[in-house]
User: Fold this.
Amino acid sequence: MLQRLFSPKNLKGTAFEIIGSFLTAVALYNFALNAKFLMTGFSGVALILYRLFNLPIGAVMILLNIPVAIWCYKLLGRGFFLRSVRCTILSSLMVDYVAPLLPIYTGDRLLAALCTGVLSGIGYALIYMHNSSTGGSDFIIMAIRAKRPHLSLGRISFAIELVIILAGGLIFRDMNGVLYGLLVNYISAQMVDKMLYGVDAGKLTLIITERGRDVVAAIDQCSGRGATILPAKGGYAGDGKEVVLCACNNKQMYQVRQAVHEVDSASFIIILESNEVLGEGFKEHTLK
Assistant:
């Protein structure tokens, strides 16, 4: 038991949770609170209650999480639940006891929004990387998805976030706060995506050509990337075609386009965004 508790994997996960909780706490207390942003999730509800009744933010976050955690326990699984409870307690303690030790930003509201979004996004990404969460709306979203698997996570998350932000806007009659809250939430979501997938993001191209071998050779020469040739048939004339599939990073895609055009100017090229590429030449397959 002790060996498992102090295993490198668990220690690394705990370290990431501490760092992530610290960053989210700083974003919430040192930037969002003074700027009076309307935040999402239980932290947003805690900020509203703090402004109305001066209740401690971290303590309120824990109290709000207790009934939700009990309700969602069976749906979320024991491992994820325990990690999330630990991370919720960590983030709450950071908000109430660590973040107040640091100076509070009192400058431009737009800059505060940018810092809030970036710091909270990085913090949440570090937590999500090790299959944990800060509880709150995360529990509700996962529970609703378990009950209604046909609903997308994005729609559920957006609905919950919008309700909390609009409720704060109605209570404080602050339209600017609503707009800043939406901006902060958007920046945070983008940072989470970039942290989770951005490092390994790239482009995926599908090249429809009659000179597949020549195209593959040109791609290899200009970028050093391999490619896969798939047999295909034209939908109108039924003539034989080849589809060259190649994954590469953003910078290499321009070189690939130029090389393909030189080899076969009549080729048809489709370029897609790729959130993450795993395998030889990219990120290795690993299980966290």
User: Anything to note?
Assistant: The first strand starts at residue 202 and ends at 209. The first helix runs from residue 2 to 5.
